Amino acid sequence: MIDLAAAQDRCAQLLDAAKLHGATSADAVVRASSSEAVSIRLGKLEDVERSEGEEIGLRVFVGQQSASISSSDFSAAAFSELAQRAVAMARAAPEDAYAAIAGADLLASSEWPDLELEDVCEPDPHTLRARAEATEDAARAVSGITNSEGGSASFGRSVAVLATSNGFLGGYGSSSHSLSASVIAGEGSNKQRDYAYRTARHLADLPSPDAIGREAGERTMARLSPSGLASGAMPVVFDPRVGGSLVGHVLGAMSGPAIARRSSFLLGRLGEQLFPDHIRIIDNPHRLRGLRSRPFDGEGLPTAMRSLVEGGRITGWLTNLSSARQLGIAPTGHAARGSGGAPGVSASNVHLEGGSLTRAELISDIAHGVLVTELSGQGVNPVTGDYSRGAAGFRILNGEIAGPVAEFTIAGNLLSMLAAVQAADDLEFYRAVNVPTLRIDGMMVAGE
């Protein structure tokens, strides 16, 4: 895989070629990655996968006309052809009044923080196999587990570089270690499956294979012999591993392009009290070792920690340069960029701050409700906020978790759901979007 210095050099070469062929401005991005994964099933080697890829993307402007193109060929001849084609495409494109690279006054300085995204520890295939075996062994050792879908361990590295024709050149490397296990309990029609999975930038932050495997096994056993759930309005409690999806819907609705297209359920609601006043949601691109940490965004703008929701109110939209210009507001440093196409919008490491109640206290007054641990389906309308998803989890009776339930649907509207959300104090930071246990009263449940 190409290293950081070489990737920066290739971006500079491609920009030179774009200028030579008539581009008035341009930016170039390199994305490179390598990974290795080992999978074990029932104690035997199932799969060993090694992948490596490098791609360079070029976006050129000829006045207000633009085009994007990408290639995996890093030769000088390919760069010349790529730049020539991109400029020709731009000249044939319609003008876009909002598209442009960032002005020099908006670009990040070169003195960004070390976010500790890259681990020097790189496991060999034998070590990965041992981790995968230990993870699956721990899951299968849980009493009652009858079969396995496997355990896996993986490691990866990546490089991201962005360069612009007006002088920005930045890049960073990152690493990831992962462990997972998925197992089955029960026999015949009473079979259930569940999993556990963790990813961390550094091996030191990854739980042990025993811990991941045991979690997978215990989660699976807890789901055995599910019952049905009566239909009606009731409190719904979201486990942290699914509750982050609610924040994800909010982030999508806060996207500048969605607002500019008028296709967001949050349109016209900036400044309104949408959440209880104690709810606070933070976006922190500078979290050390964060899964979405980044020193600059996909257009070279600086990134910074920001409250997305403060006092129950949304503080503003998430924009790239194009959507910021359309909306007449300042860009927020949320541009996201792959190797091809124009920049999109993405938040970084996001968390909803925890409340003051423990999880047990949060559910203690629920006479009849449900704890959701799994969601399925895509029944969310981003324009209206209508929400309907399949679910599985556990019944809550008289303030206690009473047993597994499955094959039911939860429904509501995101605006009313957000207004009713309550948070426990069990927030942990290891996902890209982290939330504590969340409770929403009055949701409709369709079961038996």
Automatic annotation (TrEMBL):
Sorted alphabetically, the Gene Ontology cellular component annotations on this record are: cytosol
Gene Ontology BP term (one): proteolysis
Tell me, what's a Pfam family for it? PmbA_TldD_2nd
Q: Which residues form the Metalloprotease TldD/E central domain?
A: 122-224
Q: GO molecular function: any one? A: metallopeptidase activity
Family, per entry? Belongs to the peptidase U62 family.
- Report what the protein is called: TldD/PmbA family protein
Organism, scientific name: Allopontixanthobacter confluentis
